[in-house]
Amino acid sequence: MNFSITNKFIPSLKGTWDQLLTESVTDVPFLHYEYLKQWWQTRGGGEWPENASLLIITATEGDQLVGVAPLFLNPDNQGSTLMFLGSKEICDYLDVIVRPQDLDVFISGLLSFLSNSDFPHWDQIIFYNLIENSRTVQALERAASFMKWNFRTECVKHSPFVILPGNWETYLESIDKKQRHEIRRKMRRVQESSSSKWYIVSDSSALDHEIEAFFELMMQDAEKSSFLTAPMREQMRRTIQWAFKENCLQLSFLEIEGQKAASYFCFDYHNQILVYNSGFNSKFKDYSPGWVLLGNLLQWANENKREVFDFMRGNEEYKYCFGGRDRFVVCVIIQR
Q1: Does the residue 321 lie in any domain?
Q2: Are residues 150 and 54 part of one domain?
């Protein structure tokens, strides 16, 4: 493999990048060319400083792209750290982009390339948000050992998910009896005691309005209100618009008495629903609108033969009430 480095997003790379992603060890929305390009433009919604340096490393065989390590170099008081683009707060899953059969050669070649004297100076590598069973973790450990570099992993966050049976009633039977009863009761109460509806946004002309409505619901939570700085709003707006354009957006709302009571922003991606963020109207808290909308989304996912309902990072209790099984995302730390 021939490795090279660029400090900008090259438009001609987009098609081969995204095609390679479809065959990669990890294929998630957060690794698409356009998504990461927009993430870099806002520095993750203001998470990283403007003086961070973009370092996209590509590997080719002949004229064929076989691997991408989308990285950036962040200078701080502890030195300079190489990280994945997307690190760390708003991209739940990250990885290199390479086919499974090329992974070991790519990773060993990558670390060797990073050790070249003409490569920009770095003090450590911190790769956030690798799914714990990603083969990349083991490949990095082997390559680091060969280079005689220090390697360790840290468990970062829970990331529960549900395997869907494809049938709503079968799904309900698979979860705790008490929780099953609560889900049914809450959904039935909203249906019977109020004028309600839920929907998934599909009208492109209404998208900007629906984005603002989603932000308004998020802002009712004090923590999320602090999170939604101007740069973060812009980042999330771009993400939603990108996902809609790529036909992988599932932005849903529950309305009660003609008012928006709850919303979920999910990705509908490769037969999986990935739950990204949410917002709720405190006026309707007695109706448990979050539970009700989530129940409708799980029913929809089963009826539409989605295979996985991924709650992604965070160990909030409601995820386990809906049958979430635990797994984790990890952080890989490498030091010379």
Answers
A1: no
A2: yes
